[in-house]
Amino acid sequence: MKILLVMPHPNPKRTFFDRFAYPSLTLQQIAGITPPEHRVTIVDERYEDINFDKHYDLVGISCMTYNSLRGYEIADGFRKRGVPVVFGGYHASLLPEETKQHADSVVIGEAELTWPQLLKDLEKGELKPFYIAKKLVEPELIPPARHDIGVYTFMEAIQASRGCPVGCEFCAMQKVEGARFRGRPVDNVIEEMKTIKSKTIFFADASLTISPPYTKALFKEMISLNKRFHCFGNINVLSKDEEFLKLASEAGVERWYVGIASITQENIDISGKKTNKVEDYSAAVKKIRDHGMTVTGFFMFGFDNDTPDIFDRTLQFMLDLNLDGISFSILTPYPGTRLAERLEKEGRILSRDWSRYAEGYVNFQPKKMTVEE
Fold it and tell me: What is the extent of the structural domain holding 26?
């Protein structure tokens, strides 16, 4: 079959600098678990348009919440042309009944054990409405993503592990990938890296600091590859483990993305981000930079203990940390998160327009600020 895999994007404004954006790995992973007798095409709307008039036997769409409405538009367009459409990804896994209104079938959870069966059922004319992952995929059974298609950015992505035991209130990862850390065999990860042409590789893992022993073993094998790496990491390890940081630097890690989230410990505690102690922020940033690596800090606004002065206080805190990069977002009650469930019970959800769930809009009533503030 001819299969089109799509990553939707609403109103893309494409520039040359988009090629330096974070790469997406999902569609390449789906291509990697597609049996070789099928022909796969990948289109990421951030970089190119979809040809609705081209013949496909199946269209697969993977989306988050912010781009789900555009995903529904794409699906409706293909279904009008008689092409079956399947959805997967976070939004579809968390709101399958909603998604099914625009799809012939919905893949819920990880796809390694369900996608190949879906393709067989489709060929037999026995497509089911839902394909649910009954269990998490064991890490040794996760095949490599395909890196010969779907490459749009100068930096490519890889995933060495799945699962996150932290369970932040605002994150839905545990609902899809589970709480159990699953590190792929190091040799498998290294072999996949060797298929990546890009000089810089982005780790699409929740964090490379969840299991320091696993990551240290991985770093040791990465040294000989002579590549550069960008990774997510947590404060608890980055502020204390000198051996970890030394190996990271030797392996070629050049940038750490650190979820600082809030400068207020009460907010951190309420959110359940138990890896973070505000008192350790400065030490983590300094140690990373002392080992020749850079740090991008991720901050969020809108926590229950945030007051209007949080912006000025965060700005000063950020300047004192001497970060190399920053990212700001507004706390967003994504479907399936404990945050959304709590705010729903408190009657504080203001919007379910998914196009506003892009972390730049206020979709709930803040506790100690107005929406405008």
Answer: 2-132
- Same-domain pairing of 76 and 170: no
Q: What's the structural domain count of the chain?
A: 2
CATH number at residue 54: 3.40.50.280
Q: Are 44 and 76 in contact (CB under 8 A)?
A: no
Residue 70 has pLDDT above 90, yes or no: yes
Rounded to whole angstroms, the Cα distance separating 336 from 91 reads 9
- Main-chain dihedrals φ then ψ at residue 235, nearest 5 degrees: -60, -40
Q: pLDDT tens digit string along 182-229?
A: 999 999 999 999 999 999 999 999 999 999 999 999 999 999 999 999
Is there a contact between 230 and 268 (Cβ–Cβ < 8 Å)?
A: no
Res 19 pLDDT > 90: no
Do 260 and 299 form a contact (C-beta atoms < 8 A)?
yes
Report the number of secondary-structure helices (H) and strands (E) in the chain: 14, 14
- pLDDT tens-digit map of 224-278: 999 999 999 999 999 999 999 999 999 999 999 999 999 999 999 999 999 999 9
Tell me if 268 is assigned to some domain: yes
Contact between 177 and 166 under an 8 Å Cβ cutoff? The reply is no
Q: What is the pTM of this model?
A: 0.93
In single-letter form, the type of residue at position 272 comes to G
At residue 264, the pLDDT reads 94
Single-letter residue type at 245: L
Are 99 and 216 in the same domain? no
Question: What are φ and ψ of residue 118, in 5° steps?
Answer: -60, -45
Do 163 and 86 sit in the same domain of this protein?
Answer: no
- Residue with structure tokens 């730049």? 360
Contact present, 267 and 313 (Cβ < 8 Å): no
Q: Which two tokens stand for residue 328?
A: 């700001």
- Based on the domain organization, do 127 and 196 belong to the same domain? no
Task: Indicate whether 248 and 169 sit together in one domain.
Answer: yes
Q: What is the pLDDT of residue 18?
A: 65
Q: What is the pLDDT of residue 99?
A: 98
Domain-embedded: residue 330: yes
CB within 8 A of 196, min separation 6: which ones? 147, 156, 158, 227
